[in-house]
Structures are given as C-alpha cells and as structure tokens.
Structures
1.
Amino acid sequence: MRKKSTRLLSAALAACMMLSVLPVGAFAAEPGAAEPENGVSAQEETEPYHLNGGETVNDTFVAAHGDVYELSGPYTKSITVYTTKNVTLNIVGNVDVNMGSALLNVKDARDLKINAGQYDVVANVKNTDAAAFMNLNASNATVVVQNGRYLDGEQRLSFFTVVAGTLELNDVYIAAKKTTFPILNGSVVHINGGELTAEGYYIVYNAPWPWAGIEKAGTVNIVSKGGNLLLGIGPNGNGKIPPIMQERLLQMGEWLKVNGEAIYDTYKWKQSEQWSEGDRNWKDKGKHYVGGNSILKQTVDPDPGFAVKEAFFTAKNNAVYAILPKFPENQVILKDIRTSSKTKITLLGYDKTLKWKQNGNNIVIEIPTIPYSKVPCQYAWTLKLEYVE
C-alpha cells in the first residue's frame, strides 16, 4: 500500500498534466461575473498599520490589523505588546521618544522582529532610570532588532532593558552620553556587529549566567589566537560592584590560580586550536550569523553533525599548553605534534607526570582517573607539553 504522501504527489502531478493541455478559454470568467475595477484584485493587500502611542498590540488587535506594523514620528505615550502571535515592527522614519518610559513595553510575545533600517531613534527621556526604546519582560519572547541608530543627548539612560526573554541586536548603533544595559533574571542577550559610543558604559547583571564557565572559554579562545581580553567591571548607582560580577571575578581568579601559566606571557602557537570531525560552520537555525552562544556549541554542547574545538593552544619558552574545554575520559589525542627525547607532559594542578606515546604525527596521552575532590579546576583543563614541536 502506497504512503499517503506518494498518493498526494501522484495526484498533484496528474493535475499539472491536465492543466497543461487545457485551453486558455477554460479559465474564462463566467458570464455576469464581476470584473475587478482598474485591473486591481479584490484581494489587494492593505498597507501596514501605523502604531500610535498608547495602543496595545494584543491578539484581538492582531486579528483586526494584521501582524506587520510601522513606527515613525514623535511619541509621547508607550506602546504595549501583549500577544501570543508573531509580530513585525518596521521603523519607516525617524522616531522621537518624548516620555519618561520606554516606547515599547513587551509583556508577552513569541517572535518579535524590529527592522529599523538606517533610521534614528532619538531619546528625550527625562527619567534616566527608564529604558528609552524597549523594556522586554516576556520570558517566552525572542526579540530580534535589526539595524537602526539609537541616540540621546545629555542623558544617562538605557535603550534596552531585558527583565525576561531573549534579545538579539544585529548591527545596531548606540550613541549616548552615558548608558547602561540592564540584563536581569537569567534573560539572554546576543549582540552581533554594530557599535557602541559612550563616555560611560556598563552592563548590570542581577542574575547568574546560564553557564558560569563561559567567561573562561571566551578568554581561552581569545588568548589562543594571540589576543588579549579586556574585561570591564563597573559599579552600580550606589558605587558597589554587583554580586554576580564579584562571583564571576572570583571564579576567574580561581581558574587562573591553576591555569594562569597557560595564559600570562604566552603567545600564539603554530596552531591556535584543534577541531574534531564534522561541519565547523555552526550557526543558529534560521540565522545568517554566529550567535552569542557559539562558544558553547563549538566546544561542549555541539549539535549533531557539527565539529567542536577539542583544544586551544598557547606557547611560552619550551612549553606548549593545550587547554581542553571538556575533561577527557581515559585518553586524549593531540594532532600534528611531534615529541622529542626531552618531552614531558603534565596536567596543571595535578602533581604527577602523564603517560603518553607517539602515534604517527599525533600524541596519545593517557588521562588518569582523578577523584572529584582532586580535580584541579571546574572548567577548561590544561595540559603542559614540554619540548614538542
């Protein structure tokens, strides 16, 4: 018995063959049928609705006005988005925000796309504790902002406040006297391209990052390519360093106590990283760029069929350091490395020399079973290879 999909395909092909031999007159309108005026179809699409201040985009509003809207001109009242539908907002002219709160309050949404083009969103916000453009407080929402210039005068304000949900900023330009970027309650922000110009700038985290080791992986990725990491930590309005920032600094300090030898005063080796088999061009589904969680997807949490970076390399004096994002089981193979009679391999923070053997152009290193309490660190473990090439 043929599958339903096969029957449907056969029927479709048969219909196409029948249509190809029918005369054009077979599709003529019946006598007396109404003709469209001026050649315009009766099903002509309406223009996108222009949102006005004070309106609420909910499911009823979407049913009445569609799911694509336009923004432009001055606003003195906020617009609320509170819908379970996917919505698109197109900025079609410069926008002036003249109020003490955000222009957009997103309280519920699914996929909200904001296309700003090359237009300006100019904030004249009197309350500097408010977000000038958008306050996102919708855990189910993913908001993607594409392009646009977000400008202010002499104010200190945030253009985007993320209380809950996911925000992606793609090629967004922000220019402000001083600005903040509050990211709260475990929400997620991806920044891809764009530019920030401000005399003062700090990001406020009031909740844990989804993976505490991401800073270490980011640091290792930068240093292995010969770069330096500049980590900015700023106080809040009370002059205090937020607890989450304190925690991350302490965690990085603990990691560097063990692995700092592989970071400080090192330089780029002949290869900066080692890849596994698979596709190296991972990107978020439906996106043309590599998103902010690419470090995770390209190291410890790969999607099926995609490669991961198995090791990052730095070098100093007679040593090469292989920093492993995942702690290996039983053994690890480092490719295209030649040993010598003086070669010695150790695990930083572990007091015993490791066994190894040369296998062609690769080194096979045996990893001992280490009790959890004796593991040198919690993230990114470092092998020190002396006198190799």
2.
Amino acid sequence: MKNTYAVEFAATTFRTYEVEASSEDEAEALAFDRLESDPYASSAWRKSADIHNVERKNMFNTTHYEDKIPPLVLAALVRWGKQETLVGDFLMAFLSNDLRAAIERSGEIPLAAFRHIMLFARNELPFHCHGSLKKVEAWENEIYKNLEMNNDNRNTDV
C-alpha cells in the first residue's frame, strides 16, 4: 500500500504537494513532477525551489472529529478512505461536491456536521477519493475491484 506524503518546497513562497508514494525519495520525485507541471508556478520560482520539508501524513485521524461528526458517518468515511467499503447516497453526493443532493439525502445528519465532514475529507482522506464525481466514481471502481479480488480469493469449500 502506498502512503501519502506532503512535500513542501521553499522559494519566495511555499508550495505543498500531496503525493502518494512508497518511499520518501519517490514522494520527492513525484512532487518535483507536480511542481514542473504546475501552471501557477513561474519558471523562475521553479528554478529557485528547494525541498524544505517532507512529512509522511497520518491519514484517518478521527480524534478532532469524534464529537462533531455522527459516529456512523465518521466510520463510513474511514472505511471509504481505506477502500474497505462503499458509501451510501448521502456521502456519495457529499464527497462528489453535490451539496444540494447531500442536503436532500442527509436525513438525521445535522447541517452543522457538514463543515466537519468537509474538513475530515480534506485533511484525513486521500485527495483522490473526494472532490468531484469523476474522482469518487474512480475510487468506487477501485473498491469494486478490491471486493471482487477478495471474493475470488475466498475459500468456497466452507
């Protein structure tokens, strides 16, 4: 399993790129690739950029959210981020940035929790499992593949 790293560059200003990599060296290389293709970083800024800090992110930290997000929703977000299970209609809409549909499907989930769900997604989930319908559907397809692989590897004699 690949880890998520936050790689920060220092120049006149700072830029941080989150990348998924198997090692710190790979994270640095991937972050440099992202820096090179960043349309908002000028060529002068890129030339003077040096890596300032590389930090492995601890994903799925629920400590700051346990009293702000309903427990079933928080547990579902963690399982989704770990590609262990699919999410229901509410979280599918929320993670896809469809606020209207999320509100319509929220049921008993208080609107006050929405801000904290968004913060949890941004700070604790892999960046490519939320933010647009395209990202969410791609993540969902990966979960389906994982579930199929697990079913194929089950002992059917029992």
3.
Amino acid sequence: MNKRGLSNVVTATLLILLTISAITVVSLIVIPFARENLKESTRCSDVITGISVVNDKTCYDASVPQTNITIRFGDVNPDGLYLVAEDVVTSNLLTPSEYNISDIPQSGGGQKKYTFNNYFDGVIVGPIVNGKRCPISEEAKIQRC
C-alpha cells in the first residue's frame, strides 16, 4: 500500500476544510460587522450636513458673562448635539469645555438658541447619532455682541 498518496489526499482535504472555515468566519462575523458600521457612518453623513452655526445670532457678552450660540437644524433627526467651546480665560489661554445637548428641534428643522453662563471664543458643533459622536459639522469663531 502506498502511504504517500494517502497523505496527499489528507492534505487536500484539510486545505478544503480550512478554506470552508475561513469563508464561514468571514460571512458570519466580518460582513455583518462591516454592514452595521456602514449604516452608522451613512446616517452620520446625512445628519452632519444638516447642522450649522448661525453666525449672526451667535455672540458672547464678556460683561455678563454669557454666550448665545444659535444652531440651525435642517430636516435631520440626530439623537443629540455636542458642543466643544473654547473659554476665553486670558488673551493667550483657551480651555475647552464640552457639552452634550439633548434639547434639540425635532424633525422638520429650525433654529435653537443655547445660552451659556460663560463667554466663549469659538465653538465646534457635531451631532450625536445612536449614542455616538459623529464627526464635526461646523467650527465657528464667536464674536462679541
């Protein structure tokens, strides 16, 4: 009996089983993971374009101190909004402050004014979708009122 022929058959069978196993892992784990992440990033990109800072209604009053930031929402429906604001502490030092905001206009869009008891030099705005922060929608410098 020739044992070499048998080892070639065993090797070929193992390679086929290994290939089938790899295809199964990819189809059961990797494809659904990629599909879910693609859905989420698509939703973020739809929402990002619908949020902007209304510059002529966004300003700070250093004497109070108070900052009014007005955000325009298009026909988008994010779960929330995040703001990263730069506090004007001295002329050379900026300290970032972060705010998560859930009080936003519902579908159909509109404008919403947010008032903070501090004065800010700049603001970064972005949506929150499915509990996660999407990339920045807009970055704006804030002028004095």
4.
Amino acid sequence: MIGRIARLGMCTAGLGMCTTAMASSDDGSTDFFRWPELATAVLQRRDAEVELRKLARDVQSQFSTIQAKSKDEQEFQSAVRKLQQEALRRHQKIAFGVDDPHARAKYLRKFGCCGWTDGAIDMIRRIGKPIIEIGAGQGHWQKKLSEAGIDALAFDNFEGDFSIEREPVGDVKLGDENVLLAYPDRVLFLCCPPPTDFAERAIDIFEGHHLIYVGEGYGGAHANDAFFDKVKADFDLVETAELDNFPMCHERLFHLRRASE
C-alpha cells in the first residue's frame, strides 16, 4: 500500500518566462543542466527519503496492528482506509511540502508530470517544426501542443504505472524510441523521462537537429548523467523556458540545436 502512495512520485512553479542563452547556467558556467535550486533540492530529497522510509515502517506497523485487532472485515476495511488517507497526507507533506493530500493527484490530472506555461508553448511554436514525443504517457503535452496549432505526434510503450488514471488524454500511439528512425525531420520532445537510460537511448537513435527536453538536470528526477553528457557534447542550448512546476520540483524546458548546424 505504501508503495502505491510512493508512486505518486517526484515528477514536477514557473512564470512562463523564456531566456535566450547559448550555453549558460544561473552561475554563469557552461553547464546548463545544473542550477543552484536543483542542487539544493537534491540534498533536501535525501532527507525526505529518510523520512519516507520511516513513514513506510510506521504504516506497516499500524497495518499489522489493524490486522490483529480488527473484529470483522468491515472494521478492518474502515481502519485501512483511514490509514491510507493519513499515510498519503504525510507522504505528500514530506515529499512536496503540501497540506492538501490530493494536490499532487489534481496536478497530474491537469498536466501529467510537468505543467506548461504560455511562454513555454510559444517558445515551441517559434521553432516552426513538427514535434515527435517519445514516452508521452497519457499525452497531456501532445494535446496542449495540438490545441496550440503545433503538429505533435506522441508515442509511449504504455509500460509505465500511470498513478492517476490510465486512459490517454491526448492522441498517443504505441511505440518506443525506435520510431524516431521513421521521423528524422521532427523535433524530438522528451518530457520528464525516467531516471534510467531511456532518454540516452532515444538521443542515440535520434538523427534530427532540434531537441526539446523538459525535466530536471544532473542529480534530479529525470534521465541519467550519460544523457546530459551526450546532449551537452552534441547540442547547443538555444533557449530555456520556466514551467508551472509542482512545489519542490524544478523542471525547466530546454530547446537545443545540434552543434553541427
């Protein structure tokens, strides 16, 4: 049960401002996938993980007590529901600092893992090229981009755990990173890829010239270090945009262009 609560997860409040920058971060360095707020958040999350492990042990202990003391099934189910609600409240407070235990679920239903802003959508529109999104989930961004008049294809292998609901929101087709081979002229769009080699595999296959990455940087909740290393080696940063992030989340939108251009 606590595992289900935890899967509400660390996906990720921006003003929608765009910044043109060929290769600079907040501290003036050339490492645009690192920024101070994210570095601070990574350290805070380590402390939060300790608290979440304590929470998991506490919930398990209380669950065992409920099993032992419940007189009948009705009493058992009622006590378990109360325990689930309290565990969710505590989880959301520890992980995101929010008092509303359902705030994260509401955000995910509206945006998926990360919220757009008008500025971010305008920035994508200015690129003037069709989009292909891999790992699109339920297709929240695909729907928003299409509504903004942007040609956006979206694919997902549907193997992930959509914690809120499973039905697609946008037009999402079945497919993984290998479909990129059939669309070499589209802009690759990656939104909050998992902290695995998925994004790295996608960038290895991608032959196009423009990349849009939505997510956190080094040490954050998305992609892996090898992905960031390869993107920095092969692409130049064109522009960034702030996003409508959930509390204690630090995603940014990056538009990058292949350095060979």
